[in-house]
Amino acid sequence: MQTGVQGNEPIIPTSAGSLKRLHLLIIGACALGFSFDLAEIAFGSILAAVFSSPPYAADKTEISWLLSAVYIGAIAGAPLFGWLADQHGRRIGLTSVMATLALASVGAAFAPDVGWLVAFRMLSGLALGAYPPLMFSYLSDILPAAQRGKLVMVATAFGYAGPTIFIFLVRWLTPIAPLGFDAWRWGFLFGGAGAAVCSFLFYRLPESGSWLMSKGRDAQANVTARAFEASRPVSRFKHLPSVPKSISTEDDQFRTHRFVVGFLVLVFFLTPWATVGFTLLSGAVLVQKGINLQDSLLYLGISTLGPIVGTIVGGYFIDKVQRRTALIASATAMALIGLLFASTTVPMWLIGCGIAFNLLVSLFLPVLFLYAAEMVPNSRRAMTTSFAWSANRIGSALTPLALLPVLQSHGAYAMFTVIAGTLVLFIGLVLGWGPSGRAGRQLK
Predict the structure, then answer these.
(1) Which of 55, 130, 158, 283 has its Cβ near the most Cβ atoms within 10 Å?
(2) So where are the chain's domains?
């Protein structure tokens, strides 16, 4: 595909063999938004530890609903904003998501009781459920194919700084409580302000040129093309051809959109039992093991450091390994490390397992999103991946409701055995019916 603009014909520059400064600006905005998205999710583990300890010590039913609320909201939010992004543009979708998150976070900061906090967490879930699939759809649309995986991993790596900063911020503010305001409330205020900034940034960014082309809006696609064309190149690399309609025999089964949707719904539903279960309940596991709140927050904070470095390192080989292979390897390692985390009480082992598990999750999720986005044509990409992510949020909402009673009644090892079982089912599904992936190939 060409990289310039000739006459009135829009030429989408994101398929070109060069990385532009405008690409980096978009990656930066997406990474910043992802950091606040992940930080809000990380509040689940913070709230689990805070409300499991004095002076709150809420009962297990209240904690379960508090942890599930954000995912219940996400069940509706993902397809709602996915539809918005496919109908009215990626930029409008991302702007609306961040604005919603800003309002909900400020409301949560001033929640007078657990009931109100649950309600505002549900509202946050509308945005949190939508942001990841919209971000990955936007990046899949505009990034050069040869380095799509690597650049997506860089964006997610910087996004993973959000939970680290937030957890240590809350831990630092816990004994201080400035102005008599609890530390977790300050965290919500900070998150709301950051989401508002991200909303403004997305409003100022260019729309996806390939999305505009799919809607027949050639004049606007031309404007986007010229913006990328005018942006200074940062690096150049080999241009790759577009993916044909049928890449290989194993992809023939994916010719029907219904099969794609069904497959993605199943694999996305199976993932949160591990990725969300560990993140939400590791704080409660540490408290159950007799570790106090301050040290639990310290361990949780340290465990978030691994993904930042690990995701950047993973970006250097992610486009050289097919998506299916990477997913199966990550899921296998997560199952083993989760069981080890459950069986030990040694601080160094707990920290090491936490870092390793979170590192694997940080590699697993962006690859899964890329795997899904690369299966779907541009005109349906946001809606399809958002619909699959909605299934993920259903699983996420069920996760604390199902796993917390197992943890409290049968212990950590039983809970992680359930988590390992869902990962085994995921591996079997992807190995049996999933295509190998389209790493490094241009998309339709």
Answers:
(1) 130
(2) 16-234+253-433
